[in-house]
Structure formats: C-alpha cells, structure tokens
Amino acid sequence: YLVDYLAKPSFFVIAQGTLLLTMMVCLPIYNKIATKRGHGTAYRIGLSLFASGLVLMLFATPHGSNIPLVIAIFLMGAGIAGGNLVPHQLLPFISDIDKLISGRNRAGTYSAAMSLTRKLFLGVIVMTIIGAILSGIGYKNPVPSILPDSQFQEGIALCKQKGIPPDTWYRYYAQYADGNWYLRYESQDVNS
C-alpha cells in the first residue's frame, strides 16, 4: 500500500519502525490494563485502536503529508500490541486449568492449536478476502520487481520502437547473477 498506491517506498522503513516501537512500548500498558480491568477490556481497546488506524489510513493520498500516516501506523501498532498480548496471556491459564481438570500437561497442544488457528485464519480467510478485494477493484502491481531477461529485452525493444531512451530501464533495473533483472528501490544508490 505504501509503496504501490501511495508511492512512498522510502517511507516504508519509517512505517515498520514506528509500528514495531509502538508495539513494544504498548505491551506493558496493555498488561497493566488487563490486570486492573480484565483481558476483555484490554483486547477491545486494542482492536478499537487498530480499527481506527485502518480507517485513518483510508484518507491517505499519494501527495498528502506523512504525518497522518505516522499517526495511523502508531494507532495500528498500539492496537496490534493489545490484539497479540491478550491471547498469549490467556494461553497459560487455559493450559493450567486443563491440567487441573484432566491431570495431563497439554500446554504444547494448546499452543500448537492456537498457532494453527491463527495461521489458517490469516492464510485462508484474510488473504483470500484481500485478494478478492484487490482483484475486484482491478489492482495490478504497477511495476514488476523481478523480470526475466527475455521480458527485460522486450521492454528495451518497446522503448526503442516508441522512441524512449532505453537508458531509463537500466536506471531502474539491475541484473543479478541469476540472470534476472531486479527493480532498484528509490532509497538505494542507482550505482550500487
């Protein structure tokens, strides 16, 4: 989204850092909320902050300021912290209660079931919905990041046919040892 739609590839690293640092700072806060007000309250606060960050992200435009993006990413990071902390805090309680009831230690089974459920949900449901939405709106990756040499040469031939200097392609792509051409990112030196 940041790289393709908003055309801000150099902002991507700042966004990831903001997200990670916000999550780390908010974990103790959610721990305190869960202890004083309950896990449900902490979880609802986290999901609300995450949802508000997503809504704020809808108003970002390619030519807009980065400040609303930073705020949206901050809210999303604060929300993700609560959404991740609460289920992982509750897991030991569930396995302890199960051990008291059944007499068997099945903490690993609960942990594996939780991980499997999360990955299945993200992989099957979330990614399918995102793919359907992107296909529905006609999204195409604007610039392929890897081109086989044959496609690269077709692009060069098309440039010559249209009267466009082929040097522009060499400015944005670099050939690696595997023979493929890789997109250079704006934040890197063109000659590196």
The outline comes out as: elongated
Low-confidence parts lasting 5 or more residues at pLDDT below 50? Answer: 187-192
State mean pLDDT (0 to 100 scale). Answer: 82
Query: What characterizes the major β-sheet?
Result: 3 strands, antiparallel
Cα-based radius of gyration, to the nearest Å: 23 Å
CA-to-CA gap between the ends?
A: 26 Å
Q: Helical amount among residues, as a percent range?
A: 55-70%
Secondary structure tally, helices: 6
Number of strands: 3
Order of helices and strands: HHHHEHHEE
Q: How would you classify the helix and strand content by structural class?
A: mainly alpha
The portion of residues forming beta strands comes to: under 5%
Q: In short, what is this structure?
A:
The chain is mostly helical. 68% of the residues lie in helices and 4% in strands.
